[in-house]
Amino acid sequence: MTHPDNRIRKKLLSASQAELSKAGVESFLETVARAQRSLLMLDFDGTLAPFHSDRGKAFPYPGVTSLLQEILGVGKTRVVIVSGRDATELIPLLALEPHPEVWGLHGLQRVKADGSIEVTELDETTLRALALADDWLISQQLEHTAEFKAGSIAVHWRGLDLTAAEDIHRRVMLGWTDIAKYAGLDLLQFDGGVEIRSQKANKGAAVRILLSEMDSNTPAAYLGDDITDEEAFQAINGSGLSLLVRPVWRPTAAQLWLRPPEEVLELLVRWLEVCRDCDGASDEATPAVNA
Fold this sequence. Notes:
Blueprint: H1 4-34, E1 38-42, H2 64-74, E2 77-82, H3 87-94, E3 101-104, E4 109-111, E5 117-119, H4 124-139, E6 146-149, E7 152-156, H5 162-183, E8 186-190, E9 193-197, H6 203-212, E10 220-224, H7 230-236, E11 241-245, E12 256-258, H8 262-281
Parallel strand pairs: 1-2, 1-10, 2-3, 10-11, 11-12
Antiparallel strand pairs: 3-4, 4-5, 6-7, 7-9, 8-9
């Protein structure tokens, strides 16, 4: 049982984090307002969209799509989605026209705004290890819990009762730990599951590439919710703003914290406002190309 004093401390910490975040966001947006271009990188599930047991129905929170469409329309912000999912799954869910650049599979896959696709090739050791991980799931009759992606396999237990979730977690870790060690793969816990994946799959690497493609003084922000986003937070810290998106704050490398969906929508509204204000102040602004 949690001691009352600990609960009070957690509430005070959350309140303090929330106030710091509001001030920090406004300070950052002042730099966006002064800049000719900016970079906005966003995770999808849990950040722009609520989790859904049917991943094909995880549509963005109401208002998100229209705000991103308007931000893209102003032409001053390069918007990029960075997700653990296959990028081709996300484009229909985003419903943005034209769609922005999307990095999928934790950075292994890049779908540019012009539709061209780049995919990182995997070595034979990784492919054999993923095949072994797949075989093990079949032997345990757990393949129905799995999401198969190029470069990784994720097992999900979100929505199951605690006993069933703990049983799947225990069995998967028992079967996959040695495989991951043998092949040098990452075995990553995330909110509602676990994933075995190539070490080349890294959101932090994707963020570093995106930052390198922009001028060094370009205001850049990354929003994400999960453990898989911590690499991205670490990559952008020192070069831009990292924001944890969760209903409840947790220890993180992110600089600031937003609660979904309200505070994420507020950020997008303010981002659009400052870009429009700056656009009206200068007719010489160069459009940001989502390439």
